[in-house]
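Appendix B, record 7
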Amino acid sequence: MIIKNRGEELTKEEREEIANNFFISRHAIERLRERGKVDIRQLVLNPLVAYFNTDGSVNVAQDEYNYLVFSYDDFHKNWKVVTWKEESWHGKTVFDKQRMAMNGYGRKV
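Structure tokens (predicted):
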């Protein structure tokens, strides 16, 4: 795997770019239905933390355990909401996951 990023936080401009240019995958629609309503645009603009994963995807956290995963879709030339993640089985927080990205550990698919 090629490491593209290492947990760097998104700038305000990068968050605005995503907030104004995204679509939601079918999978993410299902996860959002199961886990409750969220204003995606506002979350991207005002997250607890938003950072790049090693694969170039982006995590945007609502709280320590719940976050959206975005990836850039080259075909649509837009950001795609891939899924809504909740607390992991191992109790890792979004900050734990950001530290793993900083240390070069890849995302589990």
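Remarks on this record: DSSP finds four helices and five strands in the chain. The helical segments are 12-19, 26-35, 40-45, 94-102.
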